[in-house]
Amino acid sequence: MQIGTHIFPAYPLFLAPMEDVTDRTFRMLCKEFGADLVYTEFISADALIRSIQRTEQKLTLSDVERPVAIQLYGRDVDSMVEAAKIAAEAMPNIIDLNFGCPVKRVAGKGAGAGLLRDIPTMLAITSAVVKAVPLPVTVKTRLGWDDNSKIIVQLAEQLQDCGISALAIHGRTRAQMYNGEADWTLIGEVKNNARIHIPIIGNGDVTTPERAKECFERYGVDAVMIGRASIGRPWIFKEMKHYLLSGELIPPLSVEFQFNIIKRQILESVQWLDERKAILHVRRHLAASPLFKGIPYFREMRIRMLRANTLDELFTIFDAIQCDYLSEGSQTMA
Fold first, then answer.
1. Residue 221 near residue 187 (C-beta atoms within 8 A)
2. Options 3.40.640.10, 1.10.10.1100, 3.20.20.70, 3.40.50.300; CATH of 2-246
3. Which candidate in 67, 70, 113, 263 could, as Cys together with 92 as Cys, close a disulfide (CB 3.0–4.6 Å)?
4. How many CB atoms lie within 10 A of CB 111?
5. 8 Å CB contact between 138 and 203
6. Rg value, the chain, Cα
7. What is the rounded (10 degree) CA torsion for 192, 196, 200, 204?
8. Mean pLDDT value across residues 59-63
């Protein structure tokens, strides 16, 4: 599989772009554990043009995380072109266009998945950005707006005609948000369309190594994108890679190892942001991490972690949990 000049290894695994999740610190961890391509948090074209500091900070990339894609969202041609030119100056490997975000504040204003109800504008944005930047341009979108408008098979051909280098498809409609099961049948139909020659990346509900392998083998996708399953668990890429290449599940990672990775993520976030912002930012990872779900008093401990305001307070809670694991003889987690 190839995007632009970059050739990916067998069974490519991509880290999905996620707001308030895929910051630079998390991207580098996922890359270390085997992610073949990582994406920034999605970036508002309008905010980038207005030079909003928080938005501009998202453009900060590291050579360690390459190849890396900067993802943009917006609702009109001119702002998306201007934002793409600004993003290109940060020298990512790829510019990705978000036509799939379902949240109301984005889709409700005609951006993200909102453009699934305005295909002419979506195609105009795509064509214009492809022509405006000297980088591969990719798209991430959904099956359609709702069950009555699953248009992805035809849309994939139209986007390909705009000159994109790859297409990522989330197996849900906008109406589904993140509910129900992702439907990979249409993703497979796009991939098996004889008129499609660009790489097709599948996304949605890939939470285990076994499921990742099934998606490659059953639907024939060129790459699999991992989203929510990676939150609080960057080592999932290591687990999946091992299974994809060997057919065997990796031995369970020790509790100590997992705690050390979470602590490292927090400390590196503090270096990147500051203590207060880093703790706020990492709370989503703490809430989602499977590391804490094996303890009998998970709910109470989760509340304490999410209320912690300092590193000392948070790490004291971690130490208490680790002691409990050790006392129970639970050295590993499935």
1. yes
2. 3.20.20.70
3. 70
4. 25
5. no
6. 20
7. -60
8. 94
Give the whole-angstrom CA distance, residue 78 versus residue 45.
10
Q: Report the distance separating Cα 198 and Cα 166, nearest Å.
A: 5
Matching residue, tokens 């109470």 = 300
The residues annotated with a catalytic role in the active site are 101
The CB density around residue 332, as the number of other CB atoms within 10 Å, is: 13
Query: Among residues 267, 269, 265, which one has the least CA distance to residue 231?
Result: 265
* Sign of the torsion formed by the C-alpha atoms of 315, 321, 324 and 330: negative
The rounded distance, in Å, linking the Cα atoms of 247 and 54 is 43
DSSP bridge pairs for 68: 38
> Which pLDDT tens digit goes with each residue over 72-122?
999 999 999 999 999 999 999 999 999 999 999 999 999 999 999 999 999
Q: pTM score > 0.90 for this model?
A: yes
Q: How large is the average pLDDT for residues 276-289?
A: 86
Residues 6+ apart with CB under 8 A from 84: 45, 72, 95, 129, 132, 133, 137
**In whole angstroms, what is the distance from residue 194 CA to residue 47 CA?**
39
Provide the 10 A C-beta neighbour count for residue 66: 14
For 36-55, the pLDDT digits (tens) are 999 999 999 999 999 999 89
Give residue-wise pLDDT tens across range 161-195.
999 999 999 999 999 999 999 999 999 999 999 99
| Euclidean distance between CA atoms 290 and 300, whole angstroms | 15
